[in-house]
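User: I'm preparing a small set of examples for a lab meeting where we compare how different chains pack in three dimensions. I only have the primary sequence for this one, and I'd like the structure in token form so I can line it up with the others. Please keep the answer compact; I'll paste it straight into my notes.
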Amino acid sequence: MLHVLVHYHELALKGGNRKHFEYRLVHHLRGALKPLAHVHVEALQGRIRVSFEDEAAWPRLQEQIKRVFGIVNFSLTRAVPLAYDQSDLAVLKDAIVAHLPTHPYATFRVSAKRADKRFVKTSMDVEREIGAAVADHTGKRVNLSHPDMTIFIELVPPYAYYSCQRDAGPGGLPTGTGGKVICLISGGIDSPVASYRMMKRGCKAVFVHFHGRPYLSRVSEEKVRDQVALLTKYQLSSRLHLIPFGDIQSQIVINTPPPVRVVLYRRLMLRIATRIAEQEEAWALTTGDSLGQVASQTPENISVINEATSLPILRPLIGMDKLEITQQAQALGSFETSIEPDQDCCTLFVPKHPQTRCQLTHILKVEQALDIPQLVQQSLEGKELVTFSHAERMDRRAPQ
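Assistant: Understood. Below is the structure token output for the 400-residue chain.
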């Protein structure tokens, strides 16, 4: 059997709730690796072990583990038997020397950790003995500060695990530990990054997209489907609500003055998203707002828009500039899809000079010309639901 040792950091700080977070991480790992045959996931002392038989499966395992929130790093390891009272490390030394990497390196260090302090030797004792054996065998020098290569040893009786490479995980908290949130996703650069950042904090994301049909094409919807499919790789399953908004915007255009229309659009979107949140049992809404980026994201307009819902509105990008958001979109892999040309409802019926400092009293007065409950109900009656499953690698239309 081959073993992957998975490490977490933030979970270890959860005190009495640590077991719950560990359970969620193990559960999610099992779900992420379920499509692969003969893979076993179990919690050890302070770490998680993934065991598998087919070495050819490692690239796929590696790719998926990198997307599991809560993991700070992980290593593909080999193991040798180890007893608590074992003072002779000859078997471990021989195994490590036999499996040293073939790539060139001039210096190395040994990093050992004991999962259980009852093991007869200290971590430092193990590091010294293994380091001396490797130096004698290879002639390489030890460098504790900036080594070319590190040998990682983890003493978890009845085995000692060793490896010469670690992969970084995404960090954060396991999916589901932060509850469920509604993520408004537009097809642009910002909203997928905002969704990802909330997912990284343990939230299960349910997506809502407002489209401009029948006045616009389905291009923005197709982009959003691609973005949600990408994000589903991190939470394994997703739900996307597609909301018709073009007719609603046309009614706002007919009945309200141009400068305040953008704020009215946003307030209606939040009302609709709030109704969906009630259906989905979500505790908050998430948007890709960045302070001052566009007219609807000024301090005054944000305050007026907030008033349309009683739910918390999470804005994980609020203090980031466009360059920072773009860099995160590129790292996530959503950027290329986001910059594809399209027309979404945000570009439909937009006034030439939107007001940047709306007053709530004025907006409430303007909204009296609209049948708000009817507009919300109209949009909900026309919505479509698309589900995504990473395990099945497919999406399908689901009944309402």
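A couple of notes for your slides: Confidence is low (pLDDT under 50) at residues 394-400. Residues 186 and 209 are 6 Å apart (CA to CA).

User: Perfect, thanks.
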